[in-house]
Amino acid sequence: MICLIQNVEDYNNDLRVILMAFYMGVKIITPENIEKKPELGADVAATLVAEFAEGQTKIWMKDGGLDVKSEGASEDKQQDWSAREVCGKPDIVIDQDYHDRKVFRNVLKRAMYRMLSERTGRVLPWGSLTGVRPVKIAMEAVERGCTDEEIQKLYQETYVASREKAEACVKIARREKAIIETIDERNEYCLYIGIPFCPTRCLYCSFTSYPIGVYKDKVDAYLDTMEKEMEYIAESYTEKKLASIYIGGGTPSSISAEQMDRLCSMIEKHFDLSQVREYTIEAGRPDSTTADKLQVMKAHGVDRISINPQTMNGETLKLIGRAHTPEQAEEAFMRAREAGFDNINMDLIVGLPGEDAEMVKRTLEKVKKLAPESLTVHTLAIKRAAHLKQEMDKYSFAGDVDEQLSLVGQAAEELRLAPYYLYRQKNMAGNLENVGYARHGLECLYNILIMEERTDIIGIGAGSSSKLIRREGDLDPVTGETVIGNRIDRVENCKSVDDYIARIDEMIDRKKQAFAK
């Protein structure tokens, strides 16, 4: 554990995230936690103290913990938890006003990165960058007219990122920009439809998902409820064109062919699909991707699907709780080809327990023979809600995740696939990233737009989220006042299937308040 002590919490999240980048999986606690449970003090491996003051900020990091106030302790043994209790010279001194968050935040993170890098001996490829969307920095610079060299310098000097990551961001930003320029950002929107059912729950998964075997009798009621939400959204968005439909989960293909047909028919009934540029369904688990479901998707105009083996190593598939074999993944892919799909994505995960670079090579040899039009590689992220987080001690992890990720990039290049979107998550193995590769002209528009946040994305179903883009100078549809600065309003649906069905009127009311005109 690391104990974090700070007199001002303005940068609490920044300090925590940069600590977690260097000490993945380590729990960060505060003196208040120890005061409630004094036994935690014995498990503190290091203490970080941040003292923010006018004109100067000081930060100390020391091994072990500090004594904590405890009820009944004698006065001379009690601590006041201030930076004054930390002996020695500060590790970081920043002579700058911390109130100017826009400027100070990067200075603080850069100083923290350098101190932690020296302390641990680790060099992180993304430097002090900890956000989900690192490409946004390059995109904004591209739109300002900066050269590639200027943008790369920005990443390397401001964020201490590696040249390799800086170059990747610039390359992806320029590819994204060319695609975004084809979009009427104010007058087009995307639809996300969540089907939160799965054949089984994977070891690493933290998404909203429910076993279809238990919930199969509730699927029709769930579709009934979604149709009610669809009807309201379709009526509210008649003035905008629907650009992209993305049906995700969960595993959408875990429902029956008849239910899939009904879902697609509902979409056609309520929405104008005449301007839709892409229609994606995550077929996902190969063990649920049957010929009849593929035929239904094709008949309804679905033009992009994703078949996600995650790995082509049978023992790993068993370990992570996926009830299919590598052979079933290959068979599902070939069925999709026979059904006429010519834009198929495959998802892979690097950093899985028990897998090393040699095993990833074997996976990639099989994937290359299938030759998908796009390939998305995820670096394993240890999510708090995943079973893996609770059982970390049971599994072994190779230390070559960066090599595994590089191998996927090489395979993508051999398949003539180029990177087109990138994002990061907390607690990712190797502090790396997720990357989507695709053939030219077959990039997933939805993936780009959800990363760059340029159009409204409306979520339907349990666990879905809507993002509403508010631009500076627009009239706020709720207050009627002029919007100051760009912002994103979010509207969340409840995660539970049962709650979603029971509280659909409340979910619609949430959208009504956000959509108000």
Notable features of this structure?
single chain, five-stranded mixed beta sheet, 517 residues, alpha/beta, 38% helix
Task: Present the secondary structure layout.
Blueprint (H helix, E strand, L loop, with lengths): L1 E5 L5 H11 L5 E2 L1 H6 L9 E8 L2 E8 L28 E3 L6 H20 L14 H9 L4 H11 L4 H18 L7 E8 L1 E2 L11 E2 H4 L3 H18 L4 E9 L7 H14 L7 E7 L6 H9 L4 E4 L6 H6 L6 H13 L5 E7 L6 H14 L3 E6 L7 H4 L10 H14 L3 E6 L10 E5 L6 H8 L3 E5 L4 E6 L16 E6 L4 H6 L1 H12 L2
Parallel strand pairs: 1-2, 1-3, 6-9, 6-16, 7-8, 9-10, 10-11, 11-12, 12-13
Antiparallel strand pairs: 3-4, 4-5, 13-15, 14-15, 17-18
Describe this structure in words.
The chain is of the alpha/beta class and 517 residues long. Helices cover 38% and strands 19% of the residues. The protein has helices at 12-22, 31-36, 101-120, 135-143, 148-158, 163-180, 212-215, 219-236, 257-270, 291-299, 314-319, 326-338, 357-370, 387-390, 401-414, 445-452, 497-502, 504-515, and strands at 2-6, 28-29, 46-53, 56-63, 92-94, 188-195, 197-198, 210-211, 241-249, 278-284, 304-307, 344-350, 374-379, 418-423, 434-438, 456-460, 465-470, 487-492. The protein has a nine-stranded mixed sheet, with helices on both faces. Helix 4 (135-143) crosses helix 5 (148-158) and helix 13 runs parallel beside helix 15 (401-414). It starts with a strand and ends with a helix.
